[in-house]
What we know:
By secondary structure, the protein is mainly α. The chain folds into 2 domains: 7-79, no CATH class; 81-135, no CATH class. Helix content is 61%, strand content 0%. It is built from 7 helices and no strands. The two termini are 32 Å apart.
Amino acid sequence: MVRCAPILPGPNCLWSKLLLTKYWVPAESSDHYSAWQELDALVKQWIFSTLSDELLPRALDVKISARTAWEKVENIFLSNKGSRAAALEGEFCNLTLESCTSLDDYCQKLKDFDDRLNDVGVTVSESRLVLQLVRGFA
């Protein structure tokens, strides 16, 4: 699992948009190439530092660019998208107020599940969210 959840690849992920749509590599003969190499190494280090010990070996490769590293991480997560969605659905459906410390905590966890499910392509309608909220009171 990723230590830094906000960087998870998803359709609304700012880093994903930046790395995959605004990526430019200057020519090696360019004056900007050494500065680009430093920035690329910094971003690559940041990507690798957010991965768990289990995922790091699957993505680690010092000879690739930050963009390629990001694509490797994205593919790791997208390859298990279906099973991740199923697991999240189960946790979402089994969440109850009793399992939380307060009503605020319960509502926040429901919202977090909604966000996480959206990240793997599952849309939770507002009516379903309300029904789960009420069901969790039982």
